[in-house]
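Re-run with default settings, no changes from the original entry. Doing this only to confirm the output is reproducible before filing.
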Amino acid sequence: MTSEENDLINQIRSKGADLKSKERAVVRLGESLEETFILDLLPSKRLIKELVDVSENNSIPVALRRKVKVLLKYYSV
């Protein structure tokens, strides 16, 4: 997992961040996963694990969890 991906995961989990910034972080993670997919590389297992944790975390808004679940559906192996 790159440092950018780590920062984006931390931003999604942040209690102080507003919903728009969390949504932008999810979109950027999607772009990062798409770039990895285009280059025919597997996504980091740690990143996938973190996304699973985010998708199951009840403190994160439902809309964001749904978006993360969509990313997992398309990009997890």
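Residues 3-75 form one domain. The mean pLDDT is 93.
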